[in-house]
Structures are given as C-alpha cells and as structure tokens.
Amino acid sequence: MSFIFQGKGLFAKKSIRKGETIFIERPLVCAQFLWNAQYKYKACDFCLRALETAEENAQRLSGIPGLSLPHPELCPVRPELHQTCPQCQVMYCSSECRQRAADQYHQSLCLGPSQDDPDHPINKLKDAWRSMHYPPETSSIMLMARMVAMVKQAKDKAHWQKLFSYFCSRTANEEEEIAHKLLGEQFRGGLSLLHSLFTAALYDEHLSRWFVPEGFRSLFALVGTNGQGIGTSSLSQWVHACDALDLSAQQRAHLDSFIDQLYKDIEKGQIYLTVAACNHSCIPNAEASFPDNNFLLHLNALSDISPGEEICISYLDCCQRDRSRHSRQKTLRENYLFTCSCPKCTSQMDELDVTSEEEEEEEAEAEGETEGDEMEDEMTDV
C-alpha cells in the first residue's frame, strides 16, 4: 500500500510518480441516477457498466434509429452475457453481477411483479425523489435504500453500520444546508415527505436510528456530500478505440468526419471508502477516473508525490479551478460546507472577493434556461 490514513486525510507512504495509479477501489454502495434510468439509459444494476451497445447508444442520443457505426467490433459491450433478475427483470452485465447484487442487497429491494406498480412503496419513494431533485443529478435516494438493504442482508450488521458511520460527521446546520442544496427552497417539506416514504418502504428495527428524523437527516447528508458521480458510455469507449486504429490518412479523415458529425447530431437531441478520505485542493496531485466503464475507481497521480505528502483530489472541475478564489470558495462552501485553505487559495488571499466573469455569465444563462442538454457520458451515481 502506497498511502496511509491520517484522520480523514490520505498521505503518501512512499514516492509516487506522475501518472502512477495510487489505488483502484470498488464503492461501498452504488446506484444509477433515477432520472438517468427514466431516460432509458441501460446500466448494470450492480457495477453500472453500460449495457447499450455503442450503436444503440448513438441511435438513442442522436434520435436517428437507423444509424450504423463503422467498426462495430470495437464496441466493448457483450449483450450475450447480459442477465436479468427472474422476478423483476432488472438487468446485469453478467451472471456474476446478478449473483453479487442478490447476495448484497437485491433480495431486500426486488419488487418482483410490482416493478412498474406506481403504488409500491419503493416506487413512491423514487417518484418523490425525481419530483424534488431534477437533472443534472448529484445524488440518489436509492443509495440510502441500498445501504439499508445491505445491512439487512449482511451477516455482520455491525461491521457495515460502522463502515457507513465513518461518513456521518455533520452538524444539524450543515445537514440542513445539504438538504437545501439537493432539494431547493422547499427542502423542509420535501425532506419530511422523503423521510415518511423511506420509513414506509424500508423500515428495519436493527437500523431504527436511521429512521428517526435526526438519523435520516444524517444519512441524507452522508450521500449528499460523499457521493462520486461517474460517467459510463459505450459510445465514448468505441470512440477511444477508433482513435487507436491504424488507418491511412484518407480513412482517418473519413472516420473523424463521421464522429464529428455524430457528436453534432447528439448535441441536438458510487460512495467510496478510501477516496472519500482524500481532501480537496485547488491544485490537486491526484484525480479519479473510471477507465473500465464500470464502478471501479482508479486514483492516479497528476504529479510526483513525496513520502509524507498529502494525496489530494479536487472537488471542482477544471473550469471551476480556473475561476477566481472567491468563486471557488463560494462553490465549495455551497456544495461541501468548508472553506478551502490549499496553497493556491492561501496565495490568493489578498485578491478582491470578485466573482469570475465566466460564473456570472453562466448564472445569467441559467436563469433563462428551462431544459438541459444530454451529454456524451451519461452519469450514474456511486
């Protein structure tokens, strides 16, 4: 192991070179975003691997049913291996994933013939969540449901409760801010309704502390701040495989032109234990990626890391990190409830508290927007 935990930070035990994979991690719990599933994006219910072929993905996103992709052999999806739950027809990428889901949580959450029944308590919970938390999604109530199911099915219930409690360390005010961020101005009424539906659908006496109002808020804050969104797309994997083809200049130009037009057509139309210990920096020395098109998280070094140096990721994307200190701090306070004191923020402490021009423009555009565009990489929640 090339790292150690200190408090809730992660520090290097040995030298780590730029580009080196620091670790690969499976999530403790994961679930597909509910609106993402509603839009018919097919993902394995266990590992979140894309189940659509690249061609099916391109057809759906572009709205062109007869679209054919060249080099279909480059698509990584293998439909012949896919399996479904015999009771509720939930889909998996393999028999292994189906069995693991059944062993860990699915026995408790399988709706059987009631899968499409709007009056089933779990479907009522999902509908309520979708009515409060619109795309772009940042979390899912089903993460909480699977946490309950995992403890229900576990032989060592105390072990799993202890693992999940590792993330619960928010004050009442912080939990309220997180609920506000996820549910909007009417969050108090929304949170009360979700609590009622959550209890009706999933109550378990072994987890009674999660079902009282205070415990539910704590659980809600847990998934609101520790979730890691991932992108899985068979189409993007096909595009990357096309980039590696050995083609003549004419063939390359033709393929690139096809892919460019495809993207123009489209534009028209997981909680992890170890990575959660990584603190934020506006100049991170590591970043998470999902190269296997499933829930496996790879943490890679962005620069050389010395023994004893803290391993930090960024909770902001590249564009956000380029904004003013004031803009970065505002985003971090609103979404993660802390004030950043990384070297970059410290060095810019004397700057005026001015919002970046880009952010002002985005906020002005957002006020006039009523619908969001579909993106190339469709997001699932872990």
From TrEMBL:
Domain named SET is located at: 1-316
Q: What would be one Gene Ontology cellular-component term for the protein?
A: cytoplasm
Give the UniProt subcellular location, in the record's own words: Cytoplasm
Record keywords: Transferase included? yes
Under SMART domains, the record lists: SET (SM00317)
Tell me the superkingdom of the source: Eukaryota
- For the region Disordered, give the residue spans: 351-382
Which Enzyme Commission number(s) are on file for it? 2.1.1.359, 2.1.1.372
Q: Which UniProt keywords apply?
A: Cytoplasm, Metal-binding, Methyltransferase, S-adenosyl-L-methionine, Transferase, Zinc, Zinc-finger
GO BP, sorted A to Z: methylation; negative regulation of gene expression, epigenetic
Point out the signal peptide segment: none
Predominantly, its location class is cytoplasm
Chemical reaction(s) catalysed: L-lysyl(20)-[histone H4] + 3 S-adenosyl-L-methionine = N(6),N(6),N(6)-trimethyl-L-lysyl(20)-[histone H4] + 3 S-adenosyl-L-homocysteine + 3 H(+); L-lysyl-[protein] + 3 S-adenosyl-L-methionine = N(6),N(6),N(6)-trimethyl-L-lysyl-[protein] + 3 S-adenosyl-L-homocysteine + 3 H(+); L-lysyl(36)-[histone H3] + 3 S-adenosyl-L-methionine = N(6),N(6),N(6)-trimethyl-L-lysyl(36)-[histone H3] + 3 S-adenosyl-L-homocysteine + 3 H(+)
GO molecular function terms listed in the Swiss-Prot or TrEMBL record: histone H3K36 trimethyltransferase activity; histone H4K20 trimethyltransferase activity; zinc ion binding
PANTHER family tied to this protein:
HISTONE-LYSINE N-TRIMETHYLTRANSFERASE SMYD5 (PTHR46402:SF2), SET AND MYND DOMAIN-CONTAINING PROTEIN 5 (PTHR46402)
User: What is this protein identified as?
Assistant: Protein-lysine N-trimethyltransferase SMYD5
Q: Which gene encodes it?
A: smyd5
